[in-house]
Amino acid sequence: MDGNYWSADSAEYSVQPAAPSPADPSGLESTRLFSEALRDYFKHYEHRDKRTNHEKGIIFTRFLESIGGDKSLHDITKAECVRFREMYSRLPKRVLMTSAESQWPRY
Predict the structure, then answer these.
(1) What was the pLDDT predicted at 98?
(2) Counting beta carbons within 10 angstroms of the beta carbon of residue 64, is it exposed (0 to 12), middle (13 to 18) or buried (19 or more)?
(3) How far is CA 38 from CA 16, 34, 56, in A?
(4) Whether the Cβ atoms of residue 99 and residue 58 lie closer than 8 Å to each other
(5) In this structure, are residues 74 and 18 in contact, taking their beta carbons and an 8 Å threshold?
(6) pTM for this structure?
(7) For residue 12, which phi and psi values (nearest 5 degrees)?
(8) What string of H, E and C letters represents the secondary structure of the chain?
(9) pLDDT for 27
(10) 33 backbone dihedrals φ, ψ, rounded to 5°
(11) Average pLDDT over the chain, rounded to whole?
């Protein structure tokens, strides 16, 4: 390996879809969309400062854009998450929180 341990192109990050977990034998959790999980996430954390949830909403919206739109939780790969983290960490803060402000959905 070339020393870039977080490379999304690495074979280490080619994640295969998992079988339904024993906790969810019906497989329903594997078909749940990321946006549905976000609604539950924001409902659970509605007591937090609104600015915190707003900033997190921007980040989640950018993540959805980076993976090509809403997907089931089961279909989101580790490689996509690593790629997003690398890309997002390179952006200046003023770009991170301003350009998507008007676009993030209210979950």
Answers:
(1) 58
(2) buried
(3) 23, 6, 10
(4) no
(5) yes
(6) 0.61
(7) -60, -25
(8) CCCCCCCCCCHHHCCCCCCCCCCCCCCHHHHCEHHHHHHHHHHHCCCCCHHHHHHHHHHHHHHHHHCCCCCEHHHCCHHHHHHHHHHHHCCCHHHHHHCCCCCCCCC
(9) 55
(10) -75, 150
(11) 75
Q: CA 19, CA 42: separation in Å to the nearest integer?
A: 27
Who contacts 21 (Cβ-Cβ below 8 Å, separation ≥6)? 29
Only one residue has tokens 């549905």, namely 36
pLDDT the model gives residue 105? 53
Q: Which amino acid is at 30?
A: S
Distance CA 95, CA 4 (A): 26
Residue recorded with tokens 């659970």: 44
Alpha-carbon distance values, 83 to 6, 53, 59, 71 (Å):
9, 23, 14, 16
